[in-house]
């Protein structure tokens, strides 16, 4: 791809008033991104507000303190201009994604917070700003990873606004389908399912098993009423072909669509990073079929086309009731395989793009909406491991799976 950066940038010194101020306005009106500077921070911020109040869009003018008699500040400004890094975090209107945006932005990275719902995304950006994050560190763009037109629109935004991309953090999480109303029983139910259904016998605990499955609260409520004993997980959880397909489409193909779309912009970065948010559920030990396990592990022979074939076979076997016979996981097959395919894809990417650092990570069992706040970690703690991988220095690991901060040798 041609190394063309469409967005143009300008610094106007002494631009909190007078001709400098008007120059900043007129450049910004021409589509140039302007750094309005002033030696006095208060005056500069007020000038930016005045420009915005006069109708200039939020992302066209930013403030930086600058006294031209101070070489140290000039150096900082120059370094920022040259080294500004940009990140996209998918599914970041809430949960771990939201906290990842906050932590990356606090490190000086300009982050695009994305959400499939515009209102939720804009509210999330406001929340970050209200908590003290500076105006120019986080911007919103709509993104539904299952919609190619939405991805194309984001590519265009990044191209025209930033000209390159440094970090792509892929968080996507399908919400559980709840058949009936939410009541006080829900928290107990989710905790119960976590313990009985997902965590038992697995030291690398994660909540991910509720993805791609349907929890039937009617069944739970009626069973609970009968004898006061919680029902078996199998009695309240249903797995359907549609939910399984949607899970694979969002978790695996959603990430792949994003990578395919953004590789050209990542290639313009001098430190490209991709972080795929995976889960310990997707570890190979959870797949009974030895052949599939070996294929996913063998990065020398594995191809993206072969992953497509395996994924289609899984769906076909699901439809025909052959999961068990064909050696797929009997429970949460969609979620387990979506993450196992994502891990395998991470290996392929690391090999294909040696100049990138591409890794996947299980953030731990985190209290978020999806777990109805069941878990050991806060969203901010859950975000720490993906953020660390997004900020890996040159020469860091690539093609690895991390369980929080620990590398796993077999995944
Ligand atoms: N929480 C845990 O314990 C845990 C454990 C292991 C792995 N993980 C992984 O961590 C990641 C984040 O989960 P979380 O706990 O932060 O969940 P969360 O709070 O429910 O957040 C999920 C995010 O994904 C978005 N999303 C869903 N479908 C999407 C689509 N088609 N396009 C764009 N965005 C979409 C949601 O948007 P809406 O608000 O529009 O639904 C939301 O912003 C997931 O990949 C999950 O597998 C979490």
UniProtKB/TrEMBL annotation:
The keyword Oxidoreductase applies. InterPro entries: CBR1-like (IPR045313), NAD(P)-bd_dom_sf (IPR036291), SDR_fam (IPR002347). CDD domains: carb_red_PTCR-like_SDR_c. Keywords: NADP, Oxidoreductase. It comes from the Eukaryota. PANTHER family: (+)-NEOMENTHOL DEHYDROGENASE, OS02G0640600 PROTEIN. This is Uncharacterized protein. The lineage of its organism: Eukaryota, Viridiplantae, Streptophyta, Embryophyta, Tracheophyta.
């Amino acid at each position: 791809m041609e190394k063309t950066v469409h967005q143009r940038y300008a610094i106007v010194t002494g631009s909190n008033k007078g001709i400098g101020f008007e120059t900043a306005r007129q450049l910004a009106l021409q589509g140039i991104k302007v750094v309005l500077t002033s030696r006095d921070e208060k005056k500069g911020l007020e000038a930016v507000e005045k420009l915005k109040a006069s109708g200039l869009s939020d992302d066209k003018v930013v403030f930086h303190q600058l006294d031209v008699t101070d070489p140290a500040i000039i150096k900082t400004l120059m370094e920022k201009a040259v080294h500004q890094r940009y990140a996209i975090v998918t599914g970041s209107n809430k949960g771990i994604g939201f906290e990842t945006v906050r932590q990356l932005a606090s490190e000086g990275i300009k982050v695009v917070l994305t959400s499939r719902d515009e209102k939720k995304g804009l509210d999330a950006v406001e929340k970050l700003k209200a908590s003290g994050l500076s105006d120019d560190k986080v911007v919103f763009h709509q993104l539904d990873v299952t919609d190619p037109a939405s991805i194309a629109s984001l590519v265009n935004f990044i191209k025209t606004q930033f000209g390159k991309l440094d970090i792509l953090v892929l968080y996507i999480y399908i919400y559980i389908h709840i058949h009936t109303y939410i009541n006080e029983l829900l928290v107990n139910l989710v905790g119960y399912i976590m313990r009985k259904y997902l965590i038992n016998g697995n030291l690398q605990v994660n909540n991910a098993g509720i993805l791609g499955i349907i929890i039937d609260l009617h069944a739970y409520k009626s069973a609970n009423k009968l004898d006061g004993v919680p029902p078996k997980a199998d009695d309240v959880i249903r797995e359907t072909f549609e939910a399984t397909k949607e899970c694979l489409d969002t978790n695996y193909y959603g990430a792949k669509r994003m990578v395919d779309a953004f590789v050209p912009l990542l290639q313009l970065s001098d430190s490209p990073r991709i972080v795929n948010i995976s889960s310990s559920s997707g570890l190979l030990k959870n797949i009974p079929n030895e052949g599939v396990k070996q294929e996913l592990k063998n990065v020398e022979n594995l191809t993206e086309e072969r992953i497509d074939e395996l994924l289609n076979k899984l769906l076909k076997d699901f439809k025909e009731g052959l999961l068990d016979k064909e050696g797929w996981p009997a429970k949460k097959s969609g979620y387990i395989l979506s993450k196992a395919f994502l891990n395998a894809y991470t290996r392929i990417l690391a090999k294909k793009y040696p100049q990138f650092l591409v890794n996947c990570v299980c953030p731990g069992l985190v209290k978020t909406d999806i777990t109805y706040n069941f878990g050991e970690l806060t969203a901010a703690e859950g975000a720490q491991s993906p953020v660390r991988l997004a900020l890996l220095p040159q020469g860091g690991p690539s093609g690895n799976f991390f369980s929080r901060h620990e590398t796993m040798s077999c995944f």
